[in-house]
Write a structure and sequence with these properties.
single chain, mainly alpha, Helix Hairpins, 68% helix, 0% strand, membrane, cell membrane, transmembrane
């Protein structure tokens, strides 16, 4: 059994948390949140994978089917993630218009 996908997921999570915590630029923080979301999506898709399974379409003499619910929920999460990312970027643009900078230290 290979665990490469879980290793990549952990690396992406740690990288994104490092970006979110240490970077002061709001755009880079949004990119870190986006990378973290991608790692969570990969994690859930990896959990829903069953080796040698078929899509849930009735086929005679076959009994191992994969459940489509986790994959459908991840498609919904992708849409929500894109919407929140775009709202975050629009807020960053408004902050830049008002203050002239998008660094976090300048406002606190």
């Amino acid at each position: 059994m290979t665990l490469y996908n879980y290793t990549i997921i952990i690396i992406l999570m740690m990288l994104s948390l490092y970006i979110i915590i240490n970077d002061k630029n709001l755009i880079k923080k949004m990119m870190g949140v986006s990378i973290f979301q991608a790692s969570v999506l990969l994690f859930y898709i990896s959990l829903g994978y069953i080796k040698n399974s078929l899509p849930p379409i009735l086929v005679s003499n076959f009994y191992l089917y994969s459940n489509p619910i986790p994959h459908v929920l991840m498609l919904t999460a992708i849409v929500v993630g894109i919407a929140t990312f775009s709202v975050g970027l629009s807020i960053a643009v408004k902050i830049e218009e008002k203050y002239g900078r998008i660094d976090q230290d300048k406002y606190m």
